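Quiz preparation item.
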């Protein structure tokens, strides 16, 4: 007796047939290198006291960060990575039923957290060049808008908003609407590409600058993120600070990372150099990879994600078949190049 397979069963069997062991996981835009030796030493030293609780509410870490960026400690809130801090912002500054405006595609966390908080998403598609459509985002803001998110550099394309365009956009946003400037990858920018966020905050008290130690600093597993902005907004966000929420290891890692800036700069240079070499090679093979200002590349076009998966490369895949891959590991870069070449 023959049994007719359903379409779902056929798809499932086909996936099992195509599935291959993962050789390289490039799906989370992680730093390919372990923490710097001095950072590991600092963390290991603190872990000898892991039987003790950290500070009830964090004081040392906000002051450490504030001193480094030229702000006051009461202008900084820390949390469990940029994602954890973004969730604190959403919970503190929006209400159920508000709208959140962001570009699409974007960092996966924003639509997920919006749904968790009962916000209605108002996604604005990127333009043809993979850039955030700031005029379109400005048009999407209305009386229901509770939050706006702008990424610089953008995730997942790696494109960079011109400083003038960002300033012009912020002038169009009503003062009552908070704006998150997501700078998760800001450390990968060159000096002339960076924006004076302190000057921007003086002009726009509704602005919140969000950063993380997960990417350039290579501390993704320690979950350390922060936001800084006006005392009024930061005070509201701080009310949701989780007791015992930041480990002593996180404090030690951040202090050691700041003390090792020259080593960090050298490591960032290695990553960005590998990024440019890989992008050039991919472009020569006919893949129109946008110029990235982060530690990843966006590979547009149908079939890219599938080709990478078949080559044992885990990538962040998108509905149109495009993919985002972390960069920095030369061996992984060669594997990506081979997978892309096999499509031609």
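Solution:
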């Amino acid at each position: 007796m023959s049994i007719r397979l359903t379409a779902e069963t056929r798809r499932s069997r086909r996936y099992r047939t195509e599935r291959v062991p993962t050789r390289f996981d490039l799906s989370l835009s992680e730093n390919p290198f372990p923490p710097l030796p001095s950072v590991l030493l600092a963390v290991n030293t603190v872990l000898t006291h892991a039987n003790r609780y950290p500070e009830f509410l964090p004081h040392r870490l906000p002051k450490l960060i504030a001193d480094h960026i030229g702000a006051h400690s009461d202008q900084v809130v820390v949390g469990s990575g940029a994602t954890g801090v973004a969730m604190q912002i959403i919970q503190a500054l929006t209400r159920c039923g508000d709208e959140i405006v962001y570009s699409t595609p974007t960092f996966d966390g924003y639509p997920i957290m919006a749904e968790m908080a009962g916000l209605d998403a108002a996604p604005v598609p990127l333009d043809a060049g993979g850039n955030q459509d700031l005029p379109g985002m400005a048009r999407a803001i209305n009386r229901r808008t509770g939050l706006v998110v702008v990424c610089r550099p953008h995730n997942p394309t790696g494109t960079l908003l011109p400083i003038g365009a960002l300033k012009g956009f912020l002038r169009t946003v009503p003062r009552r609407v908070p704006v998150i400037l997501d700078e998760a990858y800001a450390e990968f920018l060159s000096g002339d590409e960076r924006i004076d966020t302190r000057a921007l905050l003086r002009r726009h008290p509704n602005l919140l600058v969000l950063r993380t130690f997960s990417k350039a600093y290579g501390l993704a597993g320690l979950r350390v993120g922060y936001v800084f902005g006006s005392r009024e907004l930061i005070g509201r966000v701080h009310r949701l600070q989780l007791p015992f929420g930041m480990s002593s290891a996180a404090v030690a890692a951040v202090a050691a990372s700041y003390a090792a800036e020259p080593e960090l700069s050298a490591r960032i240079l290695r990553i960005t150099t590998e990024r440019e070499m890989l992008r050039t090679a991919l472009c020569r093979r006919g893949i129109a990879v946008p110029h990235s200002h982060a530690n990843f590349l966006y590979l547009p076009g149908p079939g890219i994600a599938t080709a990478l998966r078949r080559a044992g490369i885990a990538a962040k895949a998108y509905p149109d078949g495009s993919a985002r891959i972390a960069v920095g590991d030369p061996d992984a870069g060669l594997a990506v190049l081979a997978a892309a070449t096999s499509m031609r």
